[in-house]
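hey can u check if this looks right to u? its 170 residues, i copy pasted from the old doc so theres a chance i mangled smth
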Amino acid sequence: MQYTLNWPPAGFTAQLWCDELPEHYQVGAATIPFVFAATGAWEARTGALSQWWPGNIRQFGLLGGTFTPNDSEQFSVFLPELVVDDLTAYEQPYERLGLPDEYRSFFIRGLTEQEALPSGELQITVAAHDIVGSSQMSFLFAAQAFFKFMSLPDWTLETLSNRNTYGGRR
């Protein structure tokens, strides 16, 4: 199920894919994980989230994947493979497949600064950025929101519609 949530007046938008992934942004997952101590638990889930903040500097980030719980007491994050295209920064489309190197550490930071990391494996197989409108901070915020989204107790429209889940900017 896919949802698009908008919050006026600023026009912040979150797009959510629950129990599915957007096909046109899929990339392969890496084989070597980042591993962190885990104290929490999540249900098995597949989902994706994109965020878009309009304004003077448009900010965009899209992340998605599958979480598989286990009893390892470790949170293993498999980032997507690097995607290289031969387009210049001035060629459309500006939204591009993949998670560039300069955003990866901010994505990991956004995930791992959360409380109670879940025990299991998170395979990130969906990622996109905007050549003009993505930044390290947009991926920090997107990772924080993705973590909150994946850890929600349920994916009812009422739960998903809570603006605080996707805030990022504090």
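The chain has one domain: 2-158.
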